[in-house]
What we know:
Elements: H1 6-13, H2 21-34, H3 47-54, H4 58-71, E1 74-77, E2 81-84, H5 87-92, H6 122-135, H7 150-163, E3 173-176, H8 179-192, E4 198-203, H9 207-215, E5 219-226, E6 229-230, E7 240-243, H10 257-270, E8 273-277, E9 301-306, E10 318-321, H11 324-338, H12 343-354, H13 357-383, E11 389-390, E12 398-401, H14 405-417, E13 422-424, E14 436-439, H15 448-461
Parallel strand pairs: 4-5, 4-7, 7-8, 8-9
Antiparallel strand pairs: 1-2, 3-10, 5-6, 9-10, 11-12, 12-14, 13-14
Helix pairs in contact: 1-3, 2-4, 3-4, 6-12, 7-12, 8-9, 8-11, 13-15, 14-15
The structure holds pyridoxal-5'-phosphate (PLP).
Residues 111, 113, 178-180, 206, 208-209, 244, 249, 277, 279, 306, 308, 313, 318 line the site of pyridoxal-5'-phosphate.
Amino acid sequence: MRRLQPEDLLLVLGARPPTDVGAWLRDGLRDAVATGRLEPGATLPSSRTAAAGLGVSRGTVAAAVDELVGEGVLESRPRSSVVVADLDRRSHGTTPGPAGRPGPGAERPASVGAPDPALFPRAAWARAVRDAMRELPDAELGYPDPQGLLGLRRALAAHLRTARAAPVEAEDVVIVSGVAQGLALLGEVLAGGGGGDRVVVEDPASPGVVAQLRDSGLEVVPVPVDDRGLRTDALPDAAAAVVTPAHQFPLGVVLAPDRRRELVAWAQAGGRLVLEDDYDAELRYDRQPVGALRGLDPEHVALLGSVSKLLSPALRLGWVVAPAEVREALVDAKRRADLGCSVPEQAAFARLIADGAYARHLRRARLTYKRRRGLLLDALARDAPHVPVEGVAAGLHLVVRLPDGDGEAWAVSALRGAGVPAEPLSGTSAHDGTRGVVVGAARVQGTAVPRVVEILRAAADGAESRA
Ligand SMILES: Cc1ncc(COP(=O)(O)O)c(C=O)c1O
């Protein structure tokens, strides 16, 4: 296999910046491996040679390599050589089990909203677990506080105050195992609270979220979304509304300022609750995300978030910032459901936030997804300018409307065949005419870019252009 020279690295890294060379080296190498510009199996120069050729210290090279080995982007081999990992093999090298079911160790198909697992900060997480376990008092190794570990609630409250411009104190936070559980528990509280059992959902919306609410015993009332978000002029009487104001799922629009105010006024007028599903709000690429709706009225808005889009859905860790009126009932529902979330995982996440590794990861993930999204949109604009991509520069997915159901079914199947997560837009709506495809764009890179462009162009062009 090829032995790389410092010049090969300079070619993919671009010009050395005056400051923060560690991030330049680490992020540039990660991106070059992820996009296939550094081929799997190629051997990196020794840290001494690389440092001399790149004009950085050996310590900087060693720290970047260490982190990327921890993430699985590079592999450390005997006699201290370091090679480029084969990310394709790592993510697709699974054996199907009997009757088409995934075999032992096989992956389930990735969801359109899942982050790229290659970006998970493995080394930082492992460090956070080790440090957390060293510090955790024995008393915390009994049954957990069902509201969540105080240390994590404090760290999250500080993070959300800054990142989401929302008033949050540790006592407002309830730790749950994801937005899905937060919605299910709040649904239970609403259904049992005598305040009515109808809940407004956006149309279109995540089918999983809608199913979750129905399973909690609520009657779901769809209200249409247009290019300014939820149609607040069409809000019916209901006990609550579940909304995605920072980045509507799946259409990707942002709720307009006047509609934010109207939605909150609707909640205030009827003593109702807004459930703000903030699933991917911190992944905005062109500007700061709009502040959380909770900032307008903390007593009528529950803010729900999780690490699923920002770190990994495998952790099953999320939060509800709950209005005082429902907090106790919510903690009670959490206790009844599962007695509380894993303390070691909560402690590790608290460490990750407190030592700055979480913020560093978010910055890095944002840059990577922004770059990938930009490359895909540039390729679409160049080679398929008539394919309509909707939504603001944010999140992990893209939506393309298609003229008919055949194109929709064909595009979903062709994209999945190419290893790209895809869902039919019609599955997200109660409205018959909604046709299109939701694409898991976060993982689209390298040779997948022209393939996705080709599929979307053929789907938009009609049956005769599909091979
Ligand atoms: C819009 C939306 N809300 C909520 C969820 C559930 O997320 P969690 O993994 O935090 O339960 C998802 C998952 O994909 C989603 O797309």
